[in-house]
Write the structure tokens for this entry.
Amino acid sequence: MTTVTYSVPAIHCGHCTHTIEMEVGELQGVQSVKADEATRKVQITFDIPASEEKIKALLAEIDYPVEGLISL
Ligand SMILES: [Cu+2]
């Protein structure tokens, strides 16, 4: 199991955090997603078949591109 925290500056409200949590939460292998509108960070815990590559691709696709990895 891996937990990553990403900086996602496009987050600006509760609608954004809800969308991210719903969409990323549907990826196979994702255990939990917590998006925070105050810090504009997303913390994701996952295992295979999910991967950082797949998560970042999905976030870019729904218009919340990852700008940086805050922690592993
Ligand atoms: Cu929003």
Observations:
- The two ends are 11 Å apart (CA to CA).
- The first strand starts at residue 2 and ends at 7.
- Residues 12-13, 15-16 surround copper (II) ion (CB under 6 Å).
- The chain has a mean pLDDT of 96.
